[in-house]
Design goal:
single chain; 395 residues; alpha/beta; Archaeosine Trna-guanine Transglycosylase, Chain: A, domain 4; Transcription Regulator spoIIAA; Rossmann fold; 3 domains; seven-stranded mixed sheet; six-stranded mixed sheet; 30% helix; globular; binds S-adenosyl-L-homocysteine
């Protein structure tokens, strides 16, 4: 059996059931496990800590499958984990709120590196770690069995694959080809996920509840939706009775689909406008033109992709929050988010607070926001809580 031995004093995160073993914690890799193979993990004294998937190219050298040394890592274990993950989403899908959800959320569902998003009858799969790649065929068989009547499509083209030394791969996983974009319902509104070339698997499912919340605060409002992507927040704002909504994004493809979402949901295009622009630039031009809004959404991409980028990212978050606060009418609402796992909640809160001080405005938190329930937060895996946000009233 392949085995890795940890350095003395480097087992504490595993004792707290955090599943990552960084390369610096590894004393010795015994035998030569192939990429993704299962290795037994032992501490410096030879005590067994469980089993992990070996990632020879990644800084995260191994990801724990189980902390029980007696548990076998096999198809049955994967099948149990997938069944449990599906079970945890069944209430959400049965509720009629949506026909799309994240079915498998990697470490947060006990399957490091596997992400599966369901859009109606299509399952979009991402194999993002050496371990998930190693078990690919088994995982696909289990998914086909567990979710009969669905069509599988692969979008293993994330940056995470590069770190794992894996080539990017996309395409159908079934004889039946799914359509280019898959229609689904979210809180009564129609959306399309561009599963072939959209971001992630095609849509940002993690903002579902926050989009609904925006709709509930949009009546009569002039709304600015920054980093709009395909207009999810905009469509909910229009449904909530917004007087006018502006989507801003640098991606022409995303905006094209955003426009179609507005039309397909039957909203009057007179209430809707798009700006293909850099948000930093657009916010400054609004400031210079003294344009004002009642509600602003800031949902930027991950500004910090690693801990070394947190300082620079902090400046970016502060800039946009400061500018947005200045554009809000007194009593206006700011929906502000960070989706960087490296940006902790206390740090993000401080950045938004600093922005308010510099803007000379008071920010009152009406709601603390997080990711949708199908993107579980596991307390002993802090990185699983990646999306943080606030709904603030700006006085
Ligand atoms: N709020 C969206 C998801 C946003 S994803 C939703 O609910 O679906 C982040 C978006 O920011 C992407 O569409 C990306 O194209 C866009 N983006 C990234 N950097 C940008 C910039 N500097 N200015 C404008 N848009 C940007």
């Amino acid at each position: 059996m392949h085995q890795i031995r940890l350095r003395r004093g480097r087992a504490s995160s595993l004792m707290r059931r955090h599943p990552w073993i960084f390369s610096g914690a590894v004393q010795r890799v015994e035998s030569e496990p192939p990429s993704g193979a299962t290795v037994r993990v032992i501490d410096a004294d030879g005590r067994a800590l469980g089993h992990a998937a070996y990632s020879p190219s990644s800084q995260i050298r191994a990801r724990m499958w189980t902390f029980d040394p007696a548990e076998t890592v096999d198809a049955a274990l994967l099948q149990r984990r997938i069944a449990a993950a599906g079970q945890r989403r069944s209430a959400l899908l049965a509720s009629g709120q949506t026909t799309a959800c994240r079915l498998i959320a990697s470490e947060a569902d006990g399957i490091p590196g596997l992400v599966v998003d369901r859009y109606d009858r299509v399952l979009v799969c991402q194999f993002l770690s050496a371990g998930a790649e190693y078990w690919r065929e088994t995982l696909l068989d289990i998914l086909r069995d567990a979710f009969p009547g669905t069509v599988l499509f692969e979008r293993s083209d994330s940056d995470a694959r590069v770190k794992e030394g894996l080539p990017s791969r996309t395409g159908p996983l079934h004889a039946v080809e799914p359509p280019d974009s898959v229609t689904f319902l979210e809180h009564g509104l129609h959306f399309r996920a561009d599963i072939r070339s959209g971001h992630k698997t095609g849509f940002y499912l993690d903002q579902r509840e926050n989009r609904l919340l925006l709709g509930q605060h949009a009546e009569g409002a002039e709304v600015l939706n920054c980093f709009s992507y395909t207009g999810g927040f905009a469509v909910h704002a229009l449904a909530g009775g917004a007087a006018h909504v502006t989507d801003v994004d640098v991606s022409a493809d995303a905006l094209r689909l955003a426009g179609e979402h507005v039309r397909e949901n039957g909203f009057d295009s007179g209430r809707y406008e798009q700006q293909e622009s850099d948000v930093f630039h657009f916010l400054r031009s609004c400031r210079d033109a003294r344009r004002e809004f009642d509600v602003i959404v800031l949902d930027p991409p991950k500004f910090a992709a690693s801990s070394s980028q947190v300082r620079r990212a902090s400046r970016g978050y502060k800039d946009i929050n400061l500018l947005a606060m200045k554009l809000l009418r007194p009593g206006g609402l700011l929906f502000t988010f960070s989706c960087s796992a490296h940006m902790t909640e206390p740090l993000f809160r401080k950045i938004v607070a600093d922005a308010a001080v510099d803007a000379g405005r008071e920010a009152q938190v009406l709601s603390q926001l997080s990711q949708s329930v199908d993107h579980p937060v596991v307390l002993h895996i802090p990185e699983s809580w990646y999306l943080k946000g606030y709904l603030c009233r700006i006085g």
